[in-house]
């Protein structure tokens, strides 16, 4: 996934103008972008159904929110972020290493914002699951650090450029 901010008058009109570069297959049929696509963007598939020609084509840009604008983003590090959309059903929270049920039940966008903006650690989270060892089932209770501001892959310099370095790089000051 790639999240970018684009400053333009109307992003959807720009997407329609360059519609050959995009896959609009996840947009609802009643979305105004789909309704305003040129006729050459539609084809008839093998079943005789009218579909968009770029449906699931590799290399095409895709709006993962299906036409629902993102209004908030907090990215802590790779594979650990939160996106808030206009339609709250499309909100997305990802936290690698934590169980989906725990993410859905306990994590909020506010936790991610506090981590990014204020450097706050989130409290440790506990989850339970079943695991088998040598053909015997065990119920495991595991506590993990959930969301914290430490990015273990990159080190950012404290100067005005904030250059990123991989940990262990010789350019990182030894202070």
TrEMBL record:
Domain of life: Eukaryota
Protein name: 13672_t:CDS:1
């Amino acid at each position: 996934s790639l999240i970018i901010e684009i400053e333009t008058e109307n992003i959807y009109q720009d997407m329609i103008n360059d519609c050959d570069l995009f896959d609009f297959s996840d947009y609802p049929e009643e979305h105004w972008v789909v309704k305003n696509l040129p006729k050459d963007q539609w084809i008839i598939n093998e079943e005789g159904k009218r579909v968009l020609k770029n449906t699931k084509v590799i290399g095409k840009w895709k709006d993962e929110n299906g036409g629902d604008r993102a209004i908030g983003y907090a990215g802590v590090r790779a594979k650990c972020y939160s996106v808030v959309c206009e339609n709250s059903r499309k909100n997305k929270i990802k936290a690698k290493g934590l169980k989906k049920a725990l993410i859905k039940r306990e994590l909020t966008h506010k936790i991610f914002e506090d981590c990014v903006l204020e450097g706050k650690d989130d409290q440790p989270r506990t989850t339970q699951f079943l695991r088998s060892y040598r053909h015997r089932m065990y119920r495991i209770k595991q506590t993990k650090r959930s969301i914290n501001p430490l990015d273990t892959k990159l080190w950012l310099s404290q100067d005005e450029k904030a250059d990123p370095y991989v940990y262990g790089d010789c350019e990182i000051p030894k202070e």
